[in-house]
Structures are given as C-alpha cells and as structure tokens.
Amino acid sequence: MQRPGLRMSLTACSVVGAILVRRAPRLRVQPGVYRLNSTAVNLEVSKLPDSLPHVYPDAIGIDEAGRGPLAGPVVAAAVAVAPGAVLPRGVVDSKRLTERRLEAVYEQLMASAGILYELCVVDSARIDEINILQATFEAMSGASTGVMKKADHFKRLLIDGNQVPPQLEHFEAESVVKGDSKHFSIAAASIIAKVTRDRLMIELDKIHPEYGFAKHKGYGTRQHFSALEAHGVLPVH
To answer: Are 133 and 166 in contact (CB under 8 A)?
Structure first.
C-alpha cells in the first residue's frame, strides 16, 4: 500500500486497508521549515510552554489527524508513557504551537525512551470504501492495538472526541471531548499523528507539486480548489 515517493519503513497494520508506521519520514526539504537541525530544535524547546498534566499514568492516549481534508490519509496515533519517564516540554494542544515548535515537540517525543507509541495510517481508497468515520475508527484501533502489544499493562484508553471506536468498546475506553487540550497522552498522540500526516502530504507534494499539498496538507483551501479545477481529481482525493 506504500505509494511511490513515500520513503518509509512500514509493516502490516492490524486492520484491513491500513499501514502501521514506526516513525514519520524524515524530509529533505527547505531547511528551517520542516526539518530542523539540533540547534533550531533546542532554540524552539526553550520557548515551549509547560506540558499538559499526565493525570492517568496507566492510560493510553489516542488521537487522529486527517478527518477534515479533501485528500490524503487519516492517521491515528496511540501513546503510553512508561513509569518514571521524563516528560518533554510543549506537549499541549497542537493548535497552540507553530509549525516549528510542533516539529520540536515531535522530535522530543521521538527521542524519549519513555514514550511508547504506534501510528496507523488508513489511505484514501479505504476511506472512500468505508467512509471517513469508520476509517478513523480503524486507524485508532490499529494504533491502540500496536501500543498494547508492547505495553500490555496499559489497559485504559483515553480517546479524543465524543465516540469510542466499536473495535475498542471491549476495553476500558473513554472518549474525551477536546482531550488534546486536557491530557498529556492524548496531546502527544495528536502531535505525533499530525506531524506524521503533514510529512506524508509533503512527500505527496513531490509527486504532484501542482496541487500544493505541502502548503495546505489536503485541506479545502482556495489554492486546493483552484488546483482541482485546473488539474482534476487524483486517486488520493
């Protein structure tokens, strides 16, 4: 299911029509925009706000990115925090962070041995087949299952939003409206999912630069609608 041009190491996900991602692709693009060197990351970290509280240490936080766009996949992340882990700064609602700071927080999360996470990506074809809500549920289920396999003592699930995916109802699962602004683990999952999806869309932009995916990430902007009018619909729409 890997599309041409997406340089990633993938393994089969636990749900049909999805891929499990070990880490978002590192990009070779404009310096200082999407790929930050260590000095830039350190400068951004020094400006980051305090992280949200980690109130439920036995819980896995789950969130997604990509339900709203016109193109691209939906990506879900699940995060568990190992006992005694040092929590990085800046793990807050991703909407509070600039793109540079979002990348800085993401790199901190990736560098922390105490942050256990999995990502699951459901592509456009599967979204068209089952609809975006069900695709989101599949992605969340796949990511959650992946984390629970390597952190089996974490049984409680905190899911951003107002619904628990049917696949997860047999667990101790709770939906949390605006959970990415309340819980560390959900905010961490949100950041990981968003950065992963953004990087996938930047890679897609290299294949179809005329659509401007690197800028709008598949959302319904004026630029995107103009590109659709000029060039037509792609399979990723």
So the answer is: no
